[in-house]
Predict the structure.
Amino acid sequence: MKHHSETHNRKSLRLQGYDYSKVGLYFITICVKDRECSLGKIENGEMILSAIGGTANQYWLDIPKHFSHVVIHNHIIMPNHVHGIIELSQSNIEMRPVGTRHGVSLRNNAENTVGTRHGVSQHGVSQYGKPIPGSVSTIINQYKSSVKRWCNKNNHTNFHWQSSFFDHIIRSEDEYIRISSYIVNNPIKWKGDEFY
């Protein structure tokens, strides 16, 4: 049997020991598998959404309907990735998710339990392998699952997200302004983008 050392030794994308159910601002990037341009195209510096891209956009805007503690800030759907700032506006203890919860991964592996702090890993997964309701990971996993489910029901079965996602914890107003500007101007600078 082939040993997949790159899977077992894969470095976590989350900040080790950080509680991702904590109130704060998070810059999120979600990529399409193999960076295929399934979400639309850039024409004259403007993003033209495909059917999948339109659904990805609407589902992003709908996140607060399912997680009442989430505030959506700037976001952009790009041809092969999504950038967005989400704010967790109240503590997870007080938060109650709204609506149906789909796509929660119950996997428990070494990557999910490294660096736990007060029983919460950097992935928003408890030390017992259960997702923390309302954590960044739970929100993004459910978002990705919802878009994929729509694709499966609408003859776009070849669409897949890249596993996991990238995040950055926004720690200052200057950082927030810089990242917001980057998001807004992303279509104009598409050819220089690392995902192009």
Q: What stands out?
A: Helices lie at 5-8, 51-61, 63-66, 110-113, 136-153, 173-185. The longest helix spans residues 136-153. Confidence is low (pLDDT under 50) at residues 1-12, 92-123. The radius of gyration is 17 Å.
